[in-house]
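Minutes, project huddle
Topic: does the predicted pose make sense with flavin-adenine dinucleotide bound?
PN asked that the exact inputs be recorded in the minutes so nobody has to dig through chat later. Recorded below.
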Amino acid sequence: GPPPDCPPDKDQLGRSTWTFLHATAAYYPDQPTSTHRKRMLGILFALPVLFPCSWCAMHFGEEIQRSPPDVSNRENLSRWLCQQHNIVNERLGKPLFDCSIKSLDERWKDGPSDGRCD
Ligand code: FAD
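Predicted holo structure (tokens), as shared on screen:
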């Protein structure tokens, strides 16, 4: 049969985690209940403690202190997360992402208007 899968490296783990976070933010409510807010803060504040790349975890912990997560609604959370991801992109010399809600929804929720992802 096929060779067994390898454990995730830092990049794979990062890609999967950003995918989960951006997609979850894209579907976060416009009017979150206190439970939604609390659980989202739980996810975000768990990362500096548990994320299995200790450099990444430490950096994210510092950034989250500097700029606390905005869990007030879908748009604000999506934008905050985009800005956090851009801070990492900048540090790694990767291109910055356009943090307008239109670009974020196209990438993480609706897909492009040409319908190729439908
Ligand atoms: P990724 O950066 O993983 O992005 C995946 C996709 O998200 C992109 O293809 C793009 O379509 C989209 N995207 C890109 N930017 C944004 C944005 N701003 N908003 C919304 N969508 C966007 N790696 C390190 O080497 N050092 C670190 O300190 C480090 N810290 C990290 C901290 C956290 C919390 C996480 C989750 C990951 C961290 N990583 C770190 C991993 C790093 O961010 C990348 O995931 C990894 O380098 C793989 O990059 P990639 O080019 O595949 O795209």
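Observations noted during the meeting:
- Residues 10-11, 14-15, 17-18, 22, 47, 55-56, 59-60, 82, 85-86, 88-89, 92, 94, 97, 104, 107 surround flavin-adenine dinucleotide (CB under 6 Å).
- The two ends are 33 Å apart (CA to CA).
No decisions taken; revisit at the next huddle.
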